[in-house]
Amino acid sequence: MKLNEIIRESLNAEMKRQQDHIELIASENYVSEAVLIANGSIFTNKYAEGYPGRRYYGGCLNVDKVEQLGIDVAKKLFDAEHVNIQPHSGSQANAAAYKAFLKPGDKVLAMDLRAGGHLSHGFDLNFSGEVYEFAFYGVNKDTYYIDFEEVRNKALEFKPNMILAGASAYSREIDFNKFREIADEVGAYLMVDMAHIAGLVAGRAHSNPCPIADVVTTTTHKTLRGARGGMIFCKQKFAKKVDSAVFPGVQGGPLEHLIAGKTQALIEASDPSFLEYANQVVKNSKALCKVLMDNNIFVLTNGTDNHLLNIEVKTAFNITGKKAEAILESIGIVCNKELLPFDTESSVNTSGLRLGTAAMTTRGFKEKEFEQVGRIIVDALNNKDLESLKKEVKTLCDNFPIYNNIKY
Ligand SMILES: *Cc1c(COP(=O)(O)O)cnc(C)c1O
């Protein structure tokens, strides 16, 4: 059978779109061609319920080899006692982690969505908010850093079964030891969701929660730059609970083609060049941050330690985050509006933007290019000549090609 024309055209159009814009969505990245090959491989045909060496289907010889390799590489890379690399996504990983450690109705203290938390951390419309009882901590109103006094006070008062650390929009290093102390003080499990920062952890540009927390979940497609999916790390004593929460708890057959894509990415992340990448991601986000701050834009926490920054656009430019996102998209810079902690705008409009540097670092951008991007953003939001800014973006993109020899 031939590839359907609409699919083919859309894939080629998407290739062009990805090539021709500057990607600042903090949760996106460009995987290697090797990861793409693994993702699109014949492993998609295989049922493999169970785990390597103990499957409920025959013929698992080859998928076993790859999944076991992924497990071994992941454990070493993240210094973890046990890992499950089957979760289909970050949200699925969280569902399984909760199921392994909690009963319906149990209490979890997590970061407020407004402060940078994630939907799967207890949002009312998410399964997590329906099944478990969540309470939330936020950030300090003056510094925008996680307020550990608030975390501790809420933990003492709420008596959670689990404390959850990790965020989707927090620009500072998270002190996992402080969370551990508080969890121990109140007798709670400590779970860390490192979805955003996993690539920085692998590249030694952020401290590693795996030796500290009882359970750590992640996505594999953000800073880690792998196939879309999730993973769960835990202490050996919880291995059985975690594995059976993933399968048969919340999933059936694992997606072995994506497990091959994750495994390839984990191998790439174990290469010394990945240390450089992770380090450059952080240097780039600091460079972008400096240009914006020099232009009197408020960056939350007054800086960044990781791959992202949250900026306030309403004060500097008198526009909403929604409008700012649209202006930038019109010149070829893609990012997302962000509801800021204490935001006075609605979640549809917002006062801010979230900007991330991982994807363009993969493409080869260094500080110099990010300083230019920062200046383009300032000029665009000040409504300078958008046509010439658009050309500048296109030239930058042309100088840093993505995939050279892929055509559908
Ligand atoms: C992205 C993210 C997830 C969810 O990942 P999906 O693969 O989109 O389900 C979970 N937790 C955090 C903190 C995230 O940033």
TrEMBL record:
The record's Pfam families line, in alphabetical order, gives:
SHMT
Q: Does the keyword Methyltransferase apply?
A: yes
PROSITE patterns given in the database record: SHMT
What is the E.C. number?
2.1.2.1
Which parts of the sequence carry N6-(pyridoxal phosphate)lysine? K222
Q: Write down any Gene Ontology CC term.
A: cytosol
Task: List, separated by semicolons, the cofactors it needs.
Answer: pyridoxal 5'-phosphate
Q: Where in the cell is it found?
A: Cytoplasm
What keywords is this UniProt entry annotated with?
Amino-acid biosynthesis, Cytoplasm, Methyltransferase, One-carbon metabolism, Pyridoxal phosphate, Transferase
Biological process GO annotation list? glycine biosynthetic process from serine; methylation; tetrahydrofolate interconversion
Q: Does the keyword rRNA processing apply?
A: no
Q: Where does (6S)-5,6,7,8-tetrahydrofolate bind?
A: L113, G117, H118, L119
Tell me which residues are marked as the site Plays an important role in substrate specificity: H221
Classify the source by domain of life: Bacteria
Its annotated function is as follows: Catalyzes the reversible interconversion of serine and glycine with tetrahydrofolate (THF) serving as the one-carbon carrier. This reaction serves as the major source of one-carbon groups required for the biosynthesis of purines, thymidylate, methionine, and other important biomolecules. Also exhibits THF-independent aldolase activity toward beta-hydroxyamino acids, producing glycine and aldehydes, via a retro-aldol mechanism. Thus, is able to catalyze the cleavage of L-allo-threonine.
Q: How does this polypeptide assemble, per the annotation? A: Homodimer.
The family this protein is said to belong to: Belongs to the SHMT family.
Checking HAMAP family in the record gives:
SHMT
- Record's protein name: Serine hydroxymethyltransferase
Native species of this protein?
Spiroplasma tabanidicola
